[in-house]
Amino acid sequence: MFEGLMGGFANCFEPFNLLLLFLGTFLGLLVGALPGLSSPMAIIILLPVTYSLQPLPALLTMIGVYVGTKLGGSFSAILLRTPGTPAGACTALDGFPMAEKGHSGLALGYATYSSFFGGVTSWIIAVTCIPFISGIALKSSNADIALIAIMGLVMVSAFTRGSMLKGFIGVCIGLLIGSMGMDRTDAIERFTFGSLDLLSGVPFAAALVGLFGFAVVISDLSLMKSTSELVTTKFKIVLPSTLDFLKRWRAWSVGGFFGSIIGAVPGVGADGATWLSYGTVKNNSKNPEDFGKGEPDGVVAPETANNATTGGTMVPMLTLGIPGDASTAIMIGALYLHGLQPGVTLMKTGAEVVYGMLAGLLLAGVFMFVIAMGAIKFFVYVLRQHRSILFPFVMVFATMGAFASYNEYFPVYVAIFLGVFGFIMEERGFPVVTIVLGVILGPIIEYNTRVALQVANADWTTFIDTWPRIIMIGIIAFLVFNEVKQGLLRRKLSKQKL
Questions:
Q1: What is the pLDDT of residues 347-366, one digit of tens each?
Q2: Torsion over CA of 231, 234, 237 and 243, rounded to 10 degrees?
Q3: What's the rounded Cα separation, in Å, for the pair 295 and 300?
Q4: Average pLDDT, the chain
Q5: CA–CA distances in Å: residue 6 to residues 15, 57, 119, 358, 482
Q6: So where are the chain's domains?
Q7: DSSP 8-state secondary structure symbol assigned to residue 239
């Protein structure tokens, strides 16, 4: 492991790779600071650029964006009370009151310090866990891989916002999209509707661009008319003293723990980690009444958790091929586009890329800290600009990303259709990320299930003939049962209110 990690750092320190990582982090901070834009959208925009790059440089750029957006969202949350990212909403509760009191620089300092600490914490956990989990995963059979993927889909359905039923419907739609095209085993056309373009399936890059690019832009068009005034005209990050930060050990330790752990749970993401950390720190505080009024711990806890999820999400992505959130889902797509197979064999077939990504994750955290300290005035200047300027560029680059995947117009049409479809689904409470995960994991589940049954002579008991498989079946059953129970309880309470 140590030799692989050192090799990863050596690859990252190549001038070209280091430059891309730096630029990606800068772009991430910029995107995160702008309400209406997001990490998945920025990574989607980068897709046409990554086609001409080697796998590692392409993924390092995406990692830089991923890490940068985590802190960038706090800029607008603190200065505008308008979170640049969903996870930044929690930071706004105490960050904005601090700014109103004239401590905007200190609030930004707490956010920067905490984000860096959270990133380092999760990186240590990721580096420790990934080789260990990969070693176990390499011993997995086809039945194990199928159950792991199914468990990932169920967890995503259960933990994403809204009801599990809507999450499950989203997953089923994704599975349907992923099954289109020629069956690789039996050479049978499925859901092609007579189209030759669909024989090879729905273009994966086009699906990502449509669901994460076009859909989000359409959804955020309302922000084009929104205007917000900055709470101050003086912008300078003031870092808290080391002693002061250490005194707030409860806030950053809780944030680091929940961020790293929850980040590894598919579908939960930074949103759940930040609010859980904030609530835990508030409930265990000697002065809970100070929260919401400019309490520094109310900035430290969620910001630590927010960036701590970066390492957590890498664990299931790099070991099992299951994305922890929307951004890592797109990274999995990038791995596919560059000829790498995410999942249990990635550590064996692409160890150089895996260790390079882990090294880049830590370096991106360092770049994030340095860039934020030196370029805060630039980000604030961008915050003052009207957002109507941005969306046309996003649409153009997203279209380029769809076209560049196959160098033809059909993927563009697919992206537009799925963009409109994704917007409609989001408006009705169906998380788009569940659809994407269904597209990604569907073929994995189908292939490994069929192979497992072929090996077992069509004996379905092969999925319960070992203790790990029984445990996974138990987890799936528990999640489904618990969600059904909660749904019935909610329905009962709603009837009582009526």
A1: 777 888 889 999 999 999 99
A2: -90
A3: 9
A4: 79
A5: 16, 17, 19, 10, 44
A6: 2-465
A7: P
